[in-house]
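tl;dr need the bound structure. longer version: we got a ligand (zinc ion) that a collaborator sent over and nobodys looked at where it sits. i said id run it. heres the input, straight from their email, havent touched it
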Amino acid sequence: MKRVSLAIFSLVLAAGPARGAFNIASYYSPRNSERPPRNSTEYIILHTTEGPARGSLRKLHSRGEAHYFINTDGRVLRIIDKRRVAFHAGRSMWEGKTDLDNCSIGIELVGYHDRDITAAQYAALKELLRQLQEIYKIPDEKVLTHSMVAYGPPNVWHKRSHRGRKRCGMLFARDSVRRKIGLNRKPAFDPDVRAGRLINADGQLAMILYGREISPAAPAAAPTPGNAVILTAGKTAWDVARDRYNTAEVVYRFPDGKEIRGDRVTDWNRIPAGTVVVLGEAATENPVDAIRVIGRDGKTALEVAGEEYALATTVYFFPDGRVRRGDEMTPEDFKSLPVETRVLVGYVDGGYIKNGRSAFDICGPRWNRPDTYYRLADRSLVAGSGISETSIPRKTRVFFRN
Ligand SMILES: [Zn+2]
């Protein structure tokens, strides 16, 4: 099976661009047919794979994480039907709207956020944008980069939800790059930071997105796969790895030589200066950042959930089995949060699934997303991507991102 699919990838990628004419080949994700239609299409969001073509295509294809994929040779592949929802934006916000997958088309280019794309990619992207903008009547200033719209929940370093979760697609904010893909206008500022809905956690990114043009030769200082970066007193694991800091894709090599993967770190407050951080290839566009653990991601509710700790959208799963929303907890509860309490930040408690109240009834197309969680009677939390709607056990409670 694995051999067969690798052969298909090689075939798809090796076929080369059709000479002269722009064309798109269909290479639909196995997820395509299960994705619901989008009700509106207001934005186009541009991404960079942050890894080489083959591995990136395999991941995007199997998970249905983009509508289009543009290889370095200019070949364009259809991964998800443009009328359906693709899971490309993850935790996202723009002009106060959240979950932009429901109102946007995602285009993924093989490349890196701080490197130029190829001449063939410029040509293909320009034509693809021209067609999509015409079909959906999307103005230039609504062609955005993933780094513009992605945001992160509070964490041990940021007390509020913040922009700067990733730098994906950053180069597509540069005036010189936009001109080459036929775009004359771009957003002048971050509407959600300006309105106070988010804080800005990456000044350099904001400068590149909205400031004056910076020469592409200027160092962007953001690590790419394979790079090793040394932590200093002022540089945190989040600064280096962003939304991947606590995943298995990142390795921390402590000054004493000990190595540990991001998903095994037990206390983010105790990563010493001098630790070397090695980024692997991005395994997914939007790592599931959702489940935080008291004792590991911070000692207190404030450290783990920031200023959102007492909101109805922060949910606590106690080791003894109790489940409480932040707004149901007393100051006393917060003072004595046990280690190993799991925390979801920015989530809606959808309540229990019952006869006549299905997962789809509760959270709509989000029911099978990897960041939707099912709390089973045995207290386990199962991701939506790992559950079958016809066999959800009784007494299951569902939580989905708001
Ligand atoms: Zn992206």
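gonna send this back to them w/ a short note. The first strand starts at residue 24 and ends at 26.
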